[in-house]
Design brief:
By secondary structure, the chain is an alpha/beta fold. It has three domains: 152 residues, Glutamyl-tRNA reductase, N-terminal domain (Beta Polymerase, domain 2); 140 residues, Rossmann fold, CATH 3.40.50; 59 residues, no CATH class. It is 55% helix and 12% strand. The strands form two sheets. Strands 7-6-5-8-9-10 form a six-stranded parallel beta sheet. β6, α9 and β7 form a beta-alpha-beta unit. α4 crosses α14, α5 runs antiparallel to α6 and α7 crosses α8. The longest helix is centred in the last third of the chain and has 45 residues. The two termini are 20 Å apart.
Length: 422
């Protein structure tokens, strides 16, 4: 397996939003990737803070080139514009990276819980669309199990610090309190709902929801006890609310600087706070220079959470130990699957020898009564099983170790098993 991607650690938000794949285009992107020559299986993970392509490849360098070409097309830019911001991992390093992502170690908000669901959803969508098969299923299933284990056995996910809660905390810090304030949420997906629930907990006076698909805005507003407005009414609503929070559910900038300037002229000097956690951004960055406007984006969230992350940071070493344990278990399972064909070849070879010898003495065996022939067959079969029992146990026990590789190589050489037989 390989993984090629970029995230909040390696690339600024301007670059991340160029290659981000919105949910509305995810299926098309999966089919695009899986149709490329050197990508046998593909899972695409694209969130606020990362775009990563996990793939089972036929040729490493060719597969990386296929992914780079896809990202270049997605970002409408030549590969050299973003290649220095990319990371590439292969085989066990790729598996270890995925495990770290699922555990929350690679998130902007250390240990945040949303990423585990995003990993699961990305894999399940890839399976549904036929882009992912058994090889990817094994590693992603293991990653999800690991993510749950980490959050059960450590404090890495305690004291909620998701993107949603951090965005609301940032708004509260800027305005001192959100109690009684009116807030407009732009978006109606999972993150938007997380924002809404965090706002309700913070005691806001009114939650207003706007979204490209109005029916989804209505459904979310009902769940939050707020109200929905058509996207076309955005400017009118912005003249009355205290805060605008945006979520990563759209594909283009909805709020231009000129729109914000027009809104501020109608607000008679009342300030407006905007927290834009969407990638690509929903709000023109130029809006930050409009008098009376305070604009934060996803990169500002990181600064907010430093103190609150101390407890989670203390858990990192333990989480890495768990990742090491699970990686070793994954490697052992993989090695056991790899040695299984060799064991099968060994047993098939022994059985073919047994059958050949029985055939060689067929004329003499035919002189025996049926019961005696059954006894001879059972006797020879028992001898083969007893002879192969210990080698089989040793091969399985040593799978995934240097000793196991020696045993496998020696066995294949001694019995002249071809690569296809192994």
């Amino acid at each position: 397996m390989i993984v090629v991607g970029l995230n909040h650690r390696t690339a600024p938000v301007e670059l991340r939003e160029r290659v981000a794949v919105p949910s509305s285009r995810m299926v098309k992107a999966l089919h695009d990737l899986s149709g490329r020559e050197h990508l046998a299986e593909v899972v695409l993970l694209s969130t606020c803070n990362r775009t990563e392509i996990y793939a089972r490849s036929t040729k490493f360098h060719s597969a990386v080139s296929d992914v780079l070409e896809f990202l270049s097309e997605q970002g409408s830019a030549p590969p050299e514009d973003f290649s220095e911001h990319l990371y590439t991992y292969y085989d066990d390093s790729a598996v270890s990276h995925l495990f770290g992502v699922a555990a929350g170690l690679d998130s902007m908000i250390l240990g945040e819980g949303e990423i585990l669901g995003q990993v699961r959803d990305a894999w399940q969508l890839a399976e549904t669309e036929g882009a992912s098969g058994q090889a990817m299923a094994r590693v992603f299933r293991h990653a999800i199990v690991l993510g749950k284990r980490v959050r059960t056995e450590t404090a890495i996910g305690r004291r909620a610090l998701s993107i949603s809660s951090a965005a609301v905390a940032l708004a509260e810090r800027t305005m001192f309190s959100l109690r009684g304030r009116s807030v407009l949420i732009l978006g109606a997906g999972d993150v938007a709902e997380g924002l809404g629930r965090a706002l309700v907990t913070a005691g806001v006076g009114e939650v207003v929801v706007a979204n490209r698909t109005h029916a989804r805005a209505v459904a979310l507003a009902e769940r939050l006890g707020g109200r929905a407005v058509p996207l076309g009414d955005l400017q009118d609503v912005l003249t009355t609310v205290d805060v605008l929070l945006t979520a990563p559910d759209s594909t283009e900038v909805h709020v231009e600087r000129a729109d914000v300037e027009a809104v501020m002229e109608r607000r008679n000097g009342v300030p407006l706070l905007i927290v834009d956690v969407a990638v690509p951004r929903d709000v023109d960055p130029g809006a930050a220079s409009v008098p009376g406007v305070t604009l934060h984006d996803v990169d500002d969230l990181h600064q907010l959470t430093e103190a609150a992350l101390d407890e989670r940071r203390r858990e990192v070493a333990t989480v890495r130990e768990i990742i090491g344990e699970e990686l070793e278990r994954f490697q052992t399972d993989r090695a056991a699957r790899a040695v299984a064909p060799l064991i099968t070849s060994l047993r098939d070879h022994a059985e073919s020898v047994r059958q050949a010898e029985l055939a060689r003495f067929r004329s003499k065996l035919d002189a025996l009564d049926p019961e005696a022939r059954k006894t001879v067959d059972a006797l020879t079969q028992g001898i083969v099983n007893k002879l192969l029992h210990e080698p089989t146990v040793q091969l399985k026990d040593a799978a995934g170790t240097a000793r196991g590789e020696l045993y496998s190589d020696a066995l294949a050489s001694l019995f002249n098993f071809s690569e296809s037989e192994e």
